[in-house]
């Protein structure tokens, strides 16, 4: 698994998105080629944030 997917899965599993996680995700987004698995993980992350399942810390 690539570092971006690992970070997204860790955030989803923990239920919290920290500022550090957001910075890591942002950095890897620019370096990682997009594929279906990544699109699905990002969609899952966004849905988790919008639904309140994932708490966003440090904002």
Task: Give an overview of the whole structure.
The structure is a single chain. The chain is mostly helical. It contains three helices and two strands; from the N terminus they run αβααβ. The chain has a two-stranded parallel sheet with strand order 1-2. Helix 1 packs parallel to helix 3. The radius of gyration is 11 Å and the shape is globular. The termini are far apart. The model has no long low-confidence stretch (mean pLDDT 93).
Keywords:
mainly alpha; two-stranded parallel sheet; 3 helices; 2 strands; globular
Count of runs of 4 or more consecutive helical residues: 3
Shape: globular
Low-confidence stretches: none
Largest sheet: number of strands, sense, barrel closure = 2 strands, parallel
Overall structural class, as computed from helix and strand content, comes to: mainly alpha
> Order of strands across the biggest sheet?
1-2
Radius of gyration from the alpha-carbon trace, in angstroms: 11 Å
How much of the sequence lies in strands comes to 5-15%
Distance between the termini: 28 Å
Question: What is the succession of H and E elements?
Answer: HEHHE
Fraction in helix: 55-70%
> Taking all residues together, what is the mean pLDDT?
93
Assembly state of the chains shown: single chain
Tell me how many strands there are: 2
